[in-house]
Amino acid sequence: MPETETGAPPRTLLVLAAVLVLVLAAGVAVAGLVMRSGRDENGALALVPVDAPQAAAPECAQLIPALPAQLDSKGTALTRRTIAEPAPPATVAWGAPDAIVLRCGLGKPPELTQTSQLRLVSGVQWLPVEGPGSSTWYVVDRAVYIALTVPDSAGTGPLQEISDTIAATLPPVPLRF
């Protein structure tokens, strides 16, 4: 029976449509692979703005370029991450998916009191503040307050490396309560 009597489209048109669908699907798959390989593996990190009244201080301008390009976390090298715009000033991040974030020039942490339990790491006094899944460590003995937020899975390597850099870059000052 001829195709025109059944009302179905011609066989040639059906084959052409199937080939076009396959070519389109292959094109979308290839485009997806190409776009993924062109992206930064870690992606830009979006950060919530935090009040940092001294982010433009000379101490932050001195510290930020002195920070290491990578941190060691339990034997894994964590490289610096790009921070999404608008990027907070005097802020650096390392690693993915859970980033380590350093912010310089913050206001005095409200948890800092005369009875706070401080930790001394490489000559730098830190105030640890635990949170869900991470801890934020505040440097409290320099001319500017600095916060280092570290995921619980990171270990102590990043804190040690940042302490070494701060000790070598910024002189200590008396605690301010």
TrEMBL record:
InterPro entries: DUF3515 (IPR021903)
This protein's UniProt keywords: Membrane, Transmembrane, Transmembrane helix
Annotated TM spans: 12-35
Keyword Transmembrane (UniProt): yes
Pfam families linked: DUF3515
Name this protein carries in UniProt: DUF3515 domain-containing protein
